[in-house]
Amino acid sequence: MRHFEKNFGRWVIKYRWPIILICLLLVVGSASGMKHLRFSNDYRYFFSEDNPQLKAFEALQNTYTKDDSVLFVIASKEGSVFTPETLAVVEELTKAAWQIPYSLRVSSITNFQNTWADGDDLVVEDLVEDARQLTSSEIELIKETALNEPLLIDRLISKSGQVTGINVTINLPGKALSEVPEVAAFVRNMAEDIRVEHPNIDVYLTGMVMLNNAFPEASQDDMQTVIPAMFIIVAVVMGLLLRSFFGTLATLSIIVFSALTAMGLAGWTGIWLTAPSMSAPTIIFTLAVADSIHILVTMFQGMRGGLTKHEAIIESLRINLQPVFLTSLTTAIGFLSMNFSEVRPFNDLGNIVAMGVLAAFVYSIFFLPAVMSILPVRIKPGQKSKKYVMERLGELIVRRRRLLFWGMMAVIVVLSLGVYRIELNDQFVGYFDERYAFRTDTDFVNDNLTGIYSIEYSLGADGQGGVSRPGYLEKVDEFAMWYRSQPGVLHVNTITDIMKRLNRNMHGDDDAFYSIPGKRDLSAQYLLLYELSLPYGLDLNNQINVSKSATRFTVTLDDMSTNEMLDMEARAHEWLKGNVPESMSVRGASSSMMFAHLMERAIKSMLTGTGLALVLISAILLLALRSLKIGLISLIPNIAPALMAFGLWGFFYKDVGLGLSVVSALSLGIVVDDTIHFLSKYLRARREHGMEAQEAVRYAFRTVGTAIWVTSFILVAGFSVLTLSGFKFNSDMGLLTAIALVCALLADFLFLPPLLMKIEEEKK
């Protein structure tokens, strides 16, 4: 290995032109795969195919109808939606909504199927017809009916009567990526037309289709803002810290080549792009800098020491080849461990970044020295540099080693205590910040009309036609009453409300008969009569299965955390187990429940991934450093930064969302880099130069301190740029990782050297 390190630099310089050509061909060949990259606009992509909540949700949708929907929300500036103009807008929009691509069903207060008795006949008709011609008394009757109808209140009409909704069920074929953007563009045009024609009416858009559309929009926004910002920051920081135009230019080439290679390979391997995985180029830009910095800083130090450019390149590769290889390998392992995550976009992010890190290693040890051997780099021997600052810092740490050891130990312990304050909590609407219309519109809907979180059930009725049994309907109604008594529940949609209304209608609209029919045949007759009277598109297939052996039961929830939602569903399941037959005792399913469970599953899976990554990285360090003692010592500054960062998060933020579930593994692979570089120089001083521990620490600071400081600064700046993202996954991940990197720098500079010296002192 020693012989290889000594001759590798000479070989690279000798064959620099073929190496440059091969690297350029590799970049072009890899990058050509970018034409195969595709954006996913389906929130289901966040879940693995065997995810139990996804399976339950898809089974429910296959039994009834899909709940992919667009919800138009109308708010009148006049105060009430019960005016001829506003009702006319709702009526016209309800009819026009059938023209939305892939629309399957349209529900609103105007086409709500109102029932009433006319002698012995059951009349079923739209609640609102020809709204512009309605009299004030007719509007008042419509208002009274709507505000007293359980199926409408807090679902399609607010209690105040000031906000109403038009819900459009969309049945996406799933054959083309253009389906979701097509629907989103269509409904946005409809909403804008209403705003222009009716300035006294506000229109808001939400629903699962709009959520799906927000994901690729967030990805594209990051491409236009975060990635360029990252590139500019790296270029500026590199220029200021390296003070070398060609060194900066060569490094920028490396990071661009690495990102192009990784994204191209992602295209070749069929990886789908999502909002989380679109942060990969930014992370690669940040990480790819590190290898180049270490090689260039050592090269420049050699030239300042009097070496020629070629001699400095050869010496830099001799010194840095092993640590650069180790840091690239351990960083790649950290990101590859993200494959343990239950969140598929995080698997993709880890794989793309790992490919970028390995590409950066290849380009850094081949292309960078080859091109630097050609470019005109001039550095005067003895030129003042930051080396002097690092020598002073090393001397200070040696003198204050005992104070720093116990002081940093106390800081690590105290900050780590904040981990106990952390609560796992997530809300998928909160994934987007207020710059997205989906977020602001959804917040308005949640505050003024209905909730966007739900829990759904398919309640079995023991056999074909069993939904008409009075005993079954009474149990469903009891379940509905239990849910309605729970805090945080806004609306319960159940077939029993229709059955009770029909029973009242068939008894002359007498309120005394607003109850479940007492006989099965009566329930079946009422249901058949009602279904035969319903217009096209408004049948009961969304609530009753084909064999009439189960009904859909939907609970709409107020704005609540994932923990509260899981607790609600758990308590509901306990109620079912103790009060209904086994056929009805099922678990809740919905897109909301999928995301709620995903957080818990992601944390558990990443604990396994992080543990395995730690074992692999530790084994690599033990073998590479050829010292069991030093390898074990390295674990402390590698584990401490994540504990400190999560502790700080616990003290200041408390809630940990899905985006932070991968930070421990992600940061582990990065923070180990500085430890490796410091320890490799420390051991080189001990083994090659026979230095004592204190002098070896000074040597490490003198030779690698500047490179560690520069790379850490760029890494922190790079991950901080992710906080500019409007997508919470990326912004939170970037912020916490940046905090972990700052903690890692403190641990490597202020704790690791005193720890090394203390162990040597005790040994003596």
Can you summarize this structure?
The protein has about 775 residues and is of the alpha+beta class. Helix content is about 60%, strand content about 10%. The longest helix is centred in the last third of the chain and has 36 residues, at about 730-764.
Walk me through what this model shows.
With 764 residues, the protein is an alpha+beta fold. It folds into three domains: 2-45 and 213-426 and 595-763, Multidrug efflux transporter AcrB transmembrane fold; 69-206, no CATH class; 441-560, no CATH class. It contains 24 helices and 13 strands. It has helices at residues 2-14, 16-31, 52-63, 84-96, 136-147, 179-197, 208-242, 245-268, 280-304, 309-336, 344-365, 367-372, 387-399, 401-416, 437-448, 470-484, 495-505, 520-533, 562-579, 591-625, 628-652, 663-688, 693-721, 728-763, and strands at residues 38-39, 69-76, 103-107, 113-118, 121-126, 163-170, 201-206, 272-273, 423-424, 453-460, 489-493, 550-557, 655-656. The strands form five sheets. The protein has a four-stranded antiparallel β-sheet. β4 (113-118) and β5 (121-126) form a beta hairpin. The longest helix has 36 residues, at 728-763. The two termini are 32 Å apart. The model has no long low-confidence stretch (mean pLDDT 89). Residues 249-374, 630-758 form the SSD domain. The chain crosses the membrane at residues 225-242, 249-273, 279-300, 321-340, 352-377, 403-422, 602-625, 632-652, 658-679, 699-722, 734-756. One of its GO terms (cellular component) is plasma membrane. It holds the Pfam family MMPL. InterPro entries: MMPL_dom, Mycobact_MmpL, SSD.
